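Sample intake sheet
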Amino acid sequence: MINAGKNPLILLIKNEKKLVLTGLIVGLSLFIFYYIFFYVALYNSNSKIYVKNIIKSDIVTSLDGGSSVVSESGYSNPLFNLYEVLKSESIANKVYPIIKEKFPEDLNALGVYSRESFFESYIKLINATIEPSTDIIKIKFMWPNKKHAPIVLYEILKVFKQENLIIKKTGETQKRKIIDKQTLEIAKQLEDVRNKIKNNKLTNDIVDIENETLNTIKIRTELEKDANVLYSQIQYNKRKLNEFASELKLKDAEVALRATGIGNDPYLVKLSQDLAIAKQNLAKQKAKFKDKYPEVISVRNEINTLQKLINNRKEETSVNVSIPRAIYDGPSSDIVTSFALTQAEMVSLQAQWKTLINGIHDLKKRERLLPKAKMGLDEFEKLEDALADAYKSIKEKQLEAKIRESEIIDNIIILSHPSKAASLTILIITRCLGFMLLGTLLSLAIAYIKQAIEDKWTDMVEIETHTGQNVLGSIPWVRNIDDKSTENILDVAYTNLATKIATKAHLNKFSVISFISTGKHQPKSIITETLTQKLSQMDRPVLLIDLVSKDTKNFDLIEAVKLINQELRNNNEQNIENKPVSENIHNILKGTIKKQSYNYETKILKLDKIETNLKSENLNDIMTSKGFKYILSSLKNHYEFIFINAPHCFINMPEIQTLKKLSECVILISSWNTNRQELMKFVQDISDSETKILGIIPREENSGLEKNIKTLEEYRIADSVLEQNAAGVK
């Protein structure tokens, strides 16, 4: 974590200077690697172009058409638009085949093998700036070949001019294409309408609808007159037949003819004569009209009827018919003859009348259809006229659009042809600095993340604020353990710590104090030994019980607890005040305590300590036994303070939990490297068990004591020397 009271960046660099320096070196190494294996030297060629006829923004709206080079939106700068066109993919795609044909080796040097990859490189290689208050664009182009750079730039300018001309023509070309499309659509519609008019005339069988209508009405009127005449003649013949029938007292002319016994049947004669006349009439009508004409059809029907009557008459003459009476007189025979002739004539007239009526009906039907056909035809003809006018107008616009399109010319003028290419040293320098900056930034990011993950403490005030516990003092960082000034610094630090611990413990009446370290894997801690030594030098009776296992041949705590437990079991824990028993236990404790006192280079060390051997014993079972508790109660009678150096393990291990119950208070030893949450978890766990915390002793990272913790000889406190002096005292 970073102290808010200092510059965060400077503090981060100071705390992680090795990591930052490593990042700087890595960045430089990456640049060297990049320069050797990937860097492609580029050469710069310049050119200038002038864009003429650029319209300027007016305060008052211009009413004329203006220049063809104008911003489409009304707000952008046309020169910047041209700059974007210059860097567009369209230009790159058109230039690529030209360069690929002329300078393929240059493309290989750039690592370009396709249109897509060339465009990616192209937008990085070309740049342009607009000279202030002018319509001039300065173009800068980079290329891996010094000789080819001006040539490639000139090819780009040619393609750019062509593309600009296409863009300028785009508006007019688009208009012309739209007009062409509209022309084709109108021409197609006009053709469709004309086809519909033609089909309508063919469907309704009309050529000139006006004349067709007049002729139809005229023919219908004539046929109606003829039909009326025939109808009158039929009515007249009916009256004559009734008179003949009344005179002869015979109802049928056929019977009357048989009654007269006439061998030459006048009815057949009449029918034959009428048939001959009808055939002559048919021949005349065919010469004038077509077969479907009503009068032709009427005459043909009349012929068919007469033929049928003749056939029927012939059959009737050969069949026996009953005759009411015979007629022999001449007048009656004449009447019979007139009767038969009149009846035959009436049959013929009726056939003609029916034919005329059918023809009149057909003509009326056609008359009703003609107005509807005329109405549809009129609509088509009006539409045809409108489309014809539209087609004429659009053809004129098409011609005008083609003329305007052909009048557009290029407005880009090359002021200076591409210059000779020059090397880009600044590019190498900037990339070197970029790699170094990248390495530095990455190292700073890693350092920041590292500190955030580690979540270390920054000062003692922060520890007291977050844990709610007092900081008894700090073990400072030392660079050289043999330096005289270092010894003085450490001596002052430990003396202050020992004094503060003794004062607070005396005020709170604490005698059994456990030292618990947040480090889980330290092989040995010398802090508690040094504090015990300092208190001994102050003539304060203090004993250190070191629960950190070590390889020693001395009589240790585990053996002592076993012997005391055995003594207690042998005496059933009843005669504990028995003098022989007390003496035995006292001797056991006396053999366990290492009294170390010697003068070594003006250092007088007084240290009473009980050690724990490296044996496969369950330390928690030893600590929970009555023998261990008896040892603590006995030692409290002989020492002012009993320091217990807890084994290095997790806070939730059984040994630590048992030690919290046996101790009157706890002192936490924590490195500045300790994570915030980890130390706070230690404090919370101890507080939850209702064990008092006397305070916290932070020790700085990379302390000289921690460096030499495995080899105590370098600290001038060798176990062998201590053991020899202890033996001399005995």
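Comment: The chain is about 60% helix and 10% strand. Residues 1-5, 57-75, 598-602, 703-730 have pLDDT under 50 and may be disordered.
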